[in-house]
Amino acid sequence: MVGIAAVLTCVANYVTEAPIMFADPSLIGAGNLMKTVAYLGTWIGGVTFTGSLIAFGKLQGILDSQPLLLPMRHALNASLVGISTAGLAAFLASGGDLETPMVPLSMLLGGAALAGSVSGVTLTAAIGGADMPVVITVLNSYSGWALCAEGFMLNNSLMTVVGALIGSSGAILSYIMCRAMNRSLPNVILGGYGTTSAGSKVTGLTVLGVLDEHILV
């Protein structure tokens, strides 16, 4: 729920505060910082929300624990990251005056939430059930950074500090768990491991014989 709360908070607070902040020329720098945090918080919140739903479904047996290995899934994930980065660049390049319409900017935030949500599904669904404990800690770290962005948007220092603590501790725990499994974090996040393995094919020449012949030999 932290993910969806971060998405709603970042979008709503930006729509409310941006016109007031950009009305003062001395606050343009702070406004650009707020735009960056709002966009990143929206994207991370989308990843956290849908990724947590997929992880919950796999752990509860609602969804198949086997990885969903989509064709060209790595290219798809890279494309989503590229689209999100381009959206951030367009969001920051947009004018900061009152004549800039808020609806297109809000649509860019909505696009960030959509891209993050799809990324959360594709990334988590491609990971097998055996690696779900690591995925939980990674998503916990994501939720912490989303909470940090939410606290920044609400000007709540306590929420920002707590979010940073959760995000950093989740990242450290994920690293420790991967080291214990002799795996790297990208190896787990990219998916396709920790699943069933197919047995090797039996090869060789089969010779049929009679039991009496073998006894005589």
TrEMBL record:
Q: Which residues cross the membrane?
A: 41-63, 75-93, 105-127, 158-178
This protein's source sits in the domain of life called: Eukaryota
This protein's record includes keyword RNA-binding: no
Catalyzed reaction equations: NAD(+) + NADPH + H(+)(in) = NADH + NADP(+) + H(+)(out)
Going by the UniProt record, its keywords in alphabetical order are: Membrane, NAD, NADP, Translocase, Transmembrane, Transmembrane helix
**In this record, what's one Pfam family?**
PNTB
Q: Name one GO cellular component term.
A: mitochondrial inner membrane
**PANTHER family, from UniProt?**
NAD(P) TRANSHYDROGENASE, PROTON-TRANSLOCATING NAD(P)(+) TRANSHYDROGENASE
- State the name under which the record lists this protein: proton-translocating NAD(P)(+) transhydrogenase
